[in-house]
């Protein structure tokens, strides 16, 4: 299917590039369908683009780039998804003040199950996860977890594989 | 808003799958127990608000904000 995203324009999303939110995201309860978009030159970041509202897109990155580590959730903690299959991505806020660091939404990582194409936001109590030490990109490996790659939409079409280790961030 | 009066040990049911029990009430605090489907998200309201605000802040950064950020190298060095 072809979607029109405010940020990217028309984007071709194959069937295996569709993601469904199993439980509504707080503040965005009406949204269920998304695509995970990798833009050439923006590793290690990806976009979670709403398929229902064109302007809605969340910037995501793997928690490891912020020094964050999450335990494996019990299935019930992630709304019945297989906790052991979780591939975590965190939402990232770009501060308006450029002197401030990027902020990961560390209390609400997204647990993505590549097998089912579903994800859920796992909400943790503040004491259960350490505060991020700041953005520290693991420049040796900017690629996403291999399990996510088959469900990634690359934009623009034909861009280099996001699995490549060509760093888009000056180390 | 529906307002009910309950004493410790008494409960409220919401539909046929959710049961809320008043466990203890003293010193200005009320402890409640909630029984429901394991997959049902149950959050303290202040945590829900924190998550919602974080989601809203992460949504749709200004056009080219990431590109500018990447270009200017506004990152912390490892």
Q: Summarize this, please?
A:
The complex is a heterodimer of chains A (171) and B (78). Chain A has strands at residues 2-5, 9-12, 18-21, 33-39, 46-50, 57-61, 87-93, 103-104, 110-113, 118-121, 153-155.
Layout of strands and helices, then pairs:
The complex is a heterodimer of chains A (about 170) and B (about 80).
Chain A: E1 2-5, E2 9-12, E3 18-21, E4 33-39, E5 46-50, E6 57-61, E7 87-93, E8 103-104, E9 110-113, E10 118-121, E11 153-155
Parallel strand pairs in A: 3-10, 4-11
Antiparallel strand pairs in A: 1-2, 3-4, 4-5, 5-6, 6-7, 7-8, 7-9, 9-10
Chain B: E1 11-14, E2 18-26, E3 29-35, H1 45-58, H2 65-72
Antiparallel strand pairs in B: 1-2, 2-3
Structure characteristics:
heterodimer, A: 171 residues, mainly beta, BH3618-like, two-stranded antiparallel ribbon, 0% helix, globular, B: 78 residues, alpha+beta, 3 strands, 28% helix, 26% strand
Describe this structure in words.
The complex is a heterodimer of chains A (171) and B (78). Chain A is an all-beta fold. Chain A is built from no helices and eleven strands. In chain A, the strands form two sheets. In chain A, strands 3-4-5-6-7-9-10 form a seven-stranded mixed barrel. In chain A, strands 1-2 form a two-stranded antiparallel sheet. In chain B, a hairpin with a 2-residue loop joins β2 (18-26) and β3. With 78 residues, chain B is α+β, with helices and mostly antiparallel strands. Chain B contains two helices and three strands; from the N terminus they run βββαα. Chain B has one domain. At the A-B interface, β6 and β7 of A face α1 and α2 of B.
């Amino acid at each position: 299917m072809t979607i029109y995203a405010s940020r990217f324009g028309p984007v071709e999303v194959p069937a295996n590039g569709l993601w469904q939110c199993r439980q509504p995201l707080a503040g965005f309860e009406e949204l269920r369908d998304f695509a995970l978009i990798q833009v050439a030159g923006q590793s290690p970041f990806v976009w979670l683009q709403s398929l229902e509202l064109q302007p809605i897109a969340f910037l995501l990155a793997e928690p490891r780039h912020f020094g964050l580590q999450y335990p494996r959730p019990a299935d019930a903690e992630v709304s019945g998804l297989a906790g052991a299959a979780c591939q975590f991505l965190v939402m990232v806020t770009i501060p308006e003040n450029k002197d401030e660091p990027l902020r990961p939404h560390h209390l609400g990582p997204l647990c993505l199950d590549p097998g089912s194409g579903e994800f859920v936001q796992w909400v943790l109590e503040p004491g259960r996860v350490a505060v991020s030490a700041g953005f520290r990109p693991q420049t040796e490996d900017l690629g996403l977890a291999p399990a996510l790659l088959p469900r990634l939409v690359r934009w623009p079409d034909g861009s280099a594989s996001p699995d490549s280790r060509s760093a888009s961030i000056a180390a | 808003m529906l307002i009910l009066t309950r004493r410790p040990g008494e409960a409220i049911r919401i539909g046929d799958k959710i049961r809320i029990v008043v466990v203890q009430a003293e010193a200005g605090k009320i402890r409640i127990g909630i029984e429901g489907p394991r997959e049902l998200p149950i959050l303290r309201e202040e945590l829900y608000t924190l998550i919602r605000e974080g989601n809203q802040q992460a949504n749709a950064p200004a056009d080219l904000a990431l590109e500018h950020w990447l270009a200017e190298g506004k990152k912390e060095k490892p």
